[in-house]
Amino acid sequence: PPELEQTLTLLSSHRSVLGYMLLSRGHPVSIIRHAGVVFEGEQGRKYAHAVARIVESVQQGLVEDEVRFMRIRTKRHEIMISPDERYLLAVLHDPSA
After folding, report:
1. What region holds the Roadblock/LAMTOR2 domain (predicted)?
2. Which of 13, 33, 43, 54 could share a disulfide with 22, CB 3.0–4.6 Å?
3. Structural domain total, the chain
4. What is the domain-level CATH number for residue 62?
């Protein structure tokens, strides 16, 4: 849809965004679309599986609640995850930029 295209273009144009991944919720998780060199090749697959495992673990721990948005901060980056029933959107962000 055009709204999704516009949102993804806006995300990737922000100077602090290093990339994004749109993932399927199936097993195994698959990358539907991505932008940014950090999500290319094997490294992208590693990120995809890590994001899927994190979301699955958190949702299993919150039986009575629904996860709508997650923000994970590491030493260098921040990963923002928006889970949906069918998809996961993960955005890698450089908070120092």
Report:
1. 4-93
2. 33
3. 1
4. 3.30.450.30
- Provide φ and ψ at 70, rounded to 5°: -130, 145
Q: What are phi and psi of 90, to 5 degrees?
A: -120, 130
Q: Is 37 helix (H, G, I), strand (E, B) or coil?
A: helix
Tell me the pLDDT tens digit for each residue of 48-66: 999 999 999 998 888 778 8
Q: Which residue, chain included where needed, has tokens 């299993």?
A: 60
**Continuous segment of H or E residues that includes residue 47:** helix 41-61
Contact 85, 11 (CB under 8 A): no
Residue 13: its H or E element = helix 2-13
The rounded distance, in Å, linking the Cα atoms of 14 and 8 is 10
Return the amino acid letter for 14: H
Domain that holds residue 38: 2-93
Instruction: State the average pLDDT over residues 42-53.
Output: 94
Whether residue 26 is predicted with pLDDT greater than 90 in this model: the reply is no
